[in-house]
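Example 4.3 (complexes with small molecules)
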Amino acid sequence: ARTAAVIPAAGRGVRLGPGTPKALRALGGTPMLVHAVRAMAASRAVSLIVVVAPPDGAAEVSRLLHEHPLPERTDLEVVPGGQTRQESVRLGLAALPDTIDVVLVHDAARPLVPVETVDAVVAAVRGGAPAVVPALPLADTVKQVDPQPQGSPEPVVGTPERALLRAVQTPQGFDLATLRKAHDTVVEGEGATDDAGLVERLGSPVVVVPGHEEAFKVTRPLDLVLAEAVLARRRA
Ligand code: CTP
Ligand code: MG
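Answer. The structure with magnesium ion bound is encoded below.
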């Protein structure tokens, strides 16, 4: 099985605040995207990485990535992304050659995922699961609410049993044909917030394997503080 990784990196990072697109922000002096690419390249299973760049930034991202060489076994391609994450992933999948049969989809915004997690996802797909997601139990209790205009208290509708919930990370791993079919079938805006969610809508099985604390997503400014601390601890 030849395995590729698609890295959606086309988002602006609105929740992180104004500045450079999120994937290009520095972490320990190196762009977040470079960390994410290295995290995928660290897995010996991954032979091709497709980076999905901001729509107007593919040339810049290409140049940047060529300044940070990868292991010889890993090919790299950069394609322009779209207006939504789902569209960006679809554009990344379209760039994969027929020789690929397993694909990982990994957020550039999860730069610090350990290689053990990547390998565990690949192993589960190669072991026969068409869709695999790494995930962790929740620390917080979760409430379902009836959303109200900003500032108004929101009535609680229910409390799902926490022990049954998992917080899902990336890389998510798929049989390529299964994920392509999901992206071709499920229309945008139906509320799927991850790739496995699209596969679930097809009625195909999705399984969870253990995720990792360091695979957290850099979303808000405090996440950058944590990411810098994790990097500093690794370098110590
Ligand atoms: N992404 C993408 N194309 C988009 C939107 C998002 O490739 N049109 C990517 C982001 O670059 C990121 C991943 O999807 O690596 C997860 O999205 P998220 O964390 O929401 O990043 P942003 O959309 O950039 O952040 P925000 O929602 O705060 O603007
Ligand atoms: Mg987003």
